[in-house]
Prior knowledge:
Blueprint: H1 3-11, H2 26-35, H3 40-48, E1 55-64, E2 67-72, E3 77-79, E4 88-91, E5 107-117, E6 126-138, E7 142-144
Parallel strand pairs: 3-7, 4-6
Antiparallel strand pairs: 1-2, 1-5, 5-6
Amino acid sequence: MLALPFISAMLSGCHSNKSDGAPPSASSVVACLKVQQDKGEYGAVSQCVATGPSEIMSGTWVSDFETSWYFNGNINVIDLSKRQDIPSLLFGNSPFQAGGPVAGNRQAFRVRFVGRKTAAGASVSAVLVDRLLSIQAVSAPSIIRSR
């Protein structure tokens, strides 16, 4: 019985194909992400999570140890003490050739790109970068972890 969600996810292309238009369940999204994991985060989320239409976006990308956050506009402080949903920024093609952000060193970039946001209520909160238009290093924001 466990194989059924995996088979269903593969056959449906991992998107919801329910006639009632209801979003896929969290368990079916997780099953799809497992099936698609060889495509990397961008590829798996593209296949498994509903997204909005492509649009030109600009904001701040913060790369830190095991994090990749996206904020609309400029940001100087990230307040993690507040309960909030900070989307990940996932690239179809890395904006860097060799090198790039160093894990463990917080870096920030102003980015402008063509991308898609995961749909409201999706079990994964991310912004998918389909085509990078520009990138510029900026000062990394400070982080508030608790108050």
